[in-house]
UniProtKB/TrEMBL annotation:
Residues 12-72 form the HTH tetR-type domain. It comes from the Bacteria. The keyword Secreted does not apply. Keywords: DNA-binding, Transcription, Transcription regulation. Pfam families: TetR_C_13 (PF16925), TetR_N (PF00440). The keyword Acyltransferase does not apply. PROSITE patterns: HTH_TETR_2 (PS50977). This is TetR family transcriptional regulator. Residues 35-54 bind DNA.
Length: 205
């Protein structure tokens, strides 16, 4: 595995580009079906360099999943957080619908895919994926708390219950989109959830 080779030197590759390529490999094939050879071909980096930087396939997956969460999901959340609370939730789901309907390979969400494939029998990744999902739930919770405070979100349910419901809707959309990426179906899942959080007086966003 080229132990020691390059360990004391800066990495001899563009780490962001390699992580982007690694995400694409795992995202399209899943963890189990992705071989080290696939990763070498996909990244264009030698096996020795990958091993020196990430340790093994598991380490590569860990780095790729973290990269996917931080550069994809969390960046989306940061964009949406700049909006008024109820609009932030609507914009978040608009992006999810757009990505799901324009996903020609039906890859879905790498985080959700990993929750289904790996989390049930891998405690480390179960914790990591659960933490990422908790961060999404926290985004919903903050938006709902703010919306309930300014009157743009219903007070008929607690913020915690509404946030959990939105997380479940998100998971359902991302799984459904892998096998039935139909606009009417996915919008039909999201629309009632957005209607549920609206205040009873119909106050606009």
């Amino acid at each position: 595995m080229g132990s020691g080779d390059g360990m004391a030197r800066p990495r001899e590759f563009d780490e962001m580009a390699v992580l982007d390529a690694t995400v694409r490999c795992f995202w399209s094939r899943g963890y189990e079906a992705t071989s080290v050879k696939d990763l070498i071909q996909g990244t264009g980096v030698t096996a020795a360099s990958l091993y020196n930087a990430y340790g093994d396939k598991r380490g590569l997956f860990r780095a790729a999943l973290d990269h996917y969460v931080e550069r994809g999901i969390m960046e989306r959340i940061r964009r949406c957080e700049a909006l008024p609370p109820r609009q932030a939730i609507g914009s978040f789901f608009d992006e999810i619908l757009s990505r799901s309907l324009n996903d020609n390979e039906h890859k879905g969400c790498m985080l959700v895919n990993s929750a289904l494939e790996i989390a049930p029998h891998d405690r480390e990744f179960q914790r990591s994926i659960a933490n990422a999902l908790a961060r999404i739930e926290t985004f919903f919770l903050h938006c709902i708390n703010a919306g309930q405070a300014d009157g743009t979100v219903t007070l008929s349910q607690s913020a915690e219950i509404l946030a959990r419901h939105l997380l479940g809707v998100l998971m359902g959309v991302r799984v459904l989109a892998r096998v039935r990426p139909e606009r009417a179906l996915l919008e039909g899942v999201v629309a009632p959830a957005l209607a549920l959080i609206a205040p009873s007086d119909g106050k606009s966003v």
